[in-house]
Queue: 4 jobs
Job 1
Amino acid sequence: MPRIAIVILNWNGQQMLSQYLPSVLKHSADEAAVYVADNASTDHSIELLQTRFPEVSIIRLDRNWGFAEGYNKALAEVEAEYYVIMNSDIEVTPQWLAPLTRFMDNHPEVAACQPKLLSMADREKFEYAGACGGFVDRLGYPFCRGRVFETVEKDSGQYDTTAEVMWATGACMMIRSSDYHAVGGFDSRFFAHCEEIDLCWRLHLRGRKVCCVTDSHVYHVGGGTLPKGNPMKTYLNFRNNLTMLYKNLPQSELAGVMRWRWWLDYVAAFQTLIVNGNVGDFRAIFRARRDFKRWKDEYKPIRQQLQDSAKPTDDAIRKPYSILWQYYFHRRRTYDHLPFL
């Protein structure tokens, strides 16, 4: 059994694999086994792997299960102490894996960690999808050290400290296999988006920790499967974020947060329509709220189980303020200018 398994989920990503898999093999193969789990690609991904990368183990899935269930099915077939969940558009750097492994070995209370995530397009900047580790505010809006809404910072070493965070990015996350399976992996119904935040929140409810280890860094392209501006991306983000809140929020906060989100989601919908003229996103937000309402009752037993088994934790990782208020009214556009709470 390999100690570390790097598992890359692929769907029609032949070009990404061709471009970025060589760096993974060059800088990781001595320390980890590398797998590609293929979500029934219709391009030449499998042929590429077989001919150019024969050292990579292929897990063939029977259809496109999406990010969440694709990983659940793939990781059910992989035995390792640590999984590294990695997007196909990641370029790793020399010695990137050792700091993560060393940190996890030395901190058994930590379930998962991520490296510093930098942008492939501008290597001096953080990358939107995870930067230096993520948080959520009191209303469930995610942000990162290095990225708040659309403001992505230049990396000047301002966050070069290993820190506990609320969530680690699904673009490149190391997680103990025992913890992954203990919480049931990703929520398969999410398909994609918010699934890593939900997973990390459930880990916190079990008393486990999540960190960003900045001694390691990788580069990420981002937005490969569903680019920004795609209404399906908007739909999944809103639907899954509401579902995540319903599952994980303590009972004392649930009703209040959901009331605020009702108003704010509809404000966001009309803002996209009136200000941006974006009919697709307007419809996507309404559809997301409708579909959340339709399946909410199916999540009641899951919510009850999570809340009944929740352990007391330091909830400071979920910030008590509104990031919308801080960003738009106080104009605090970077993480280091937010309240230190």
Job 2
Amino acid sequence: MFHVMKVADVLVRHIKKVFAEDIAIVAYYGSYAQGTATSRSDLDFFFIPLNSKGYNASIQFVLHGISFDFWPISWERAEKMACYEDSKTSIIADSIVLYSRSENDLNRFRQLKQTIITCPQEGLPFLERAEAKIGEAYVYLHKMNQHVNSEDLTFHRHQAYGVLTTILYSIALINRTYLVKGWGKNTEQIMNFSLLPDRLDTLIHTIMHSISCETIHSACEELTARTLQLLKEQLNEYTSPPAYPTRMKGFYEEIKGTLDKVRTACETNDYETAFFGAIHVQDLISNFLFYAENGFWPSTLDPSLEYQSVYKESGLPNIVSILDNKEMSELNKAIEDLDSSLRSLLLSKGVHIHEFRSIEQLEKYLSEQE
């Protein structure tokens, strides 16, 4: 009786004979590694090449009606998988090594597996990665919005698939873990996560089973919004006391250059430069003040401007609202006010600003650092 592991034996012998110094690791994963294989299961295996020649070992074929894909993963990508920066973390986590070129290669691979275990202790980076995945879902929602009146079920299901897979992966990241099994087989794991958006089960069912494009679209939007809300709630768990002296160190010295550029643009009636510069400055200051107050950065996906509340409460001028290509003197005055007010605010919060009145002062300061 044919057994797929015999194929692995053949490939490993081939590696030893032809690519002994070109491939570091050969391993398999998936149903055979997890003990869930059926008679139709293919053998999922990969290798880590060491050089360009090693990549030539890649091969895809069908044998006895079963497909085989022997594909390369660079060390760099394997490391991203281990750090949850690539959605295929389970490939490394659940893999079983068939061959290693050396003990050093094997130890390096074992360290990747250990990284997967230890990474979940760092919660905030997981939330940042989850935010990035939710951002990908908005691309698919945008495509749906471009065809809001379309009754093309195939189109909507394609986009819904994109929303569903990116959102479910983001939920795994919010729970500081990875999806063990493939799509369709990981539902039980997902529903057992401790952190889930409201109505997840209902929304998944609607997206997968509805034949109404409008209903699918609506469910995708709700799922994305609820997952974003879950993310924001978890981010708030990482709020720490304000720490202006450390979090805002060097900020004023850097932002002042941009403030001066906007003032120059106002004085020369360069509205385009003023437009981009003013909005950028207010947004950047708002983000940094939010970070100084909370210890984490505001979500870029939040459609509100809640993160600018610290900016407003500090009495800093709303320079974006007074942009006017016909009269730029008001903006110029507001930028001057912003410069002065921001400087005073930071000093009152204990932020040290490096300001020198002469070259001699600078030289003295630098000599004291030697």
Job 3
Amino acid sequence: MEPKIIGTVLNQMKREGNLPSRTASNSSQNSLAEVTNLPPALMAVKKAYPTAPDLILAINPSRQLQICTDPEKCLFGKSPKLESLNTIYGQGTAEAWLVPEVVDVCQFCGLKEMPDNYQLEKLVTIIAEKYKYLTIDQLQLFFYWFCSAKYLHFYNSFDPFVIIRSLELFIKDINDAIYKREEREKKEREEREHQEWLKSRGKALEYLHQHDKDNT
């Protein structure tokens, strides 16, 4: 989604009072001073993006094309969780960040009937609550995969259930990826342990051989 379109969305949300009040200040120093008790990881996000609009404009749908070439990094990286956005910037930030992502999907799918404000607001509220443990990189990967026809699809008009059901399929994909990663790490660990055992066994045999040689 183009920045000017996101800007339009943000302006509309401001007019409707759907952006958290903490974003009102234009001073980065004042904004940072409001949350001095954040964990280091969240403070790093706050320093990088002092206000909610800063974050929404920077981490926008076009970023999907940059990060989603490495799905494993998206799935297991250290980007902030949805619920962390509300902790950093105030309640409503997670929902505000999701709006451009959902609108971008609808535009990409070329829907003849776009979601109305009620559908959009309720959908992002459900996602922000039900999937608050997902990171923004994971969610951008989801929307990228959705646009790649990996999950369910719309039929000309917007249907929020298509996204919600697709998210359930995405969660299964995450669980499968976690299982495969754990299995891979287990095999790698077992291989390292086996190699260490062979190495120690070789040293032990070498010692015994040298000991026998010295005693003859």
Job 4
Amino acid sequence: MLPPLPATDDLLPAFAPWFDVAGLAVFAASGALAAAKRGQTAVTLAFFALITGVGGGTVRDLLIGAPVFWVHDPRAATVCLAMAAVIWTTPERWWKDSALAWFDAIGLAAYAVYGAAKAIGYGVPPLPAALMGVVTACVGGIIRDVLAGEPSILMRPELYVTAAALSSASYVALGLMGLAGAPAAVIAAAAGFGLRAMAIRYRLALPAYRVRG
């Protein structure tokens, strides 16, 4: 089992550390894969893994007035660097082109729920708490894309932020209806991941704005 979190995280539900680690691990893996597919060094893989893993959570903590999690808990950086090491030491053939998208989808759902749960734990009202889940889930991937020279996911119409919003909003809504804790988290994360998975599989996208002359 994971050791107890610092006292400032006592407000979080019991499931939260597991969702935090899951989000960190898969986002870090997606960051390391982005660097690996461009033939970068081990140091660059580690940097991409760290910045992708902690980027969204850092912004969230600054906005809700919480201690920045990875500065006070060494496990966060350890998980990110460990994932970079895994990517670095495994053959390229293990990682298909779609691996980045699927890792990102898992992290998106888990981190959106965790971000919303942490915001609620720090007294943030329901709507802003759901938005904090979106920030937690999306900012790290945005930073990764910018550093890798890829078009930001925000500039593509595919369902990405929408999937994060579904996870975080579902968790908040279920809590308001009286279903909280791990059951609500699992349902909310599954909803967001399912939507993102369908978007990847079937190329689902929101309608784009049409310029009217």
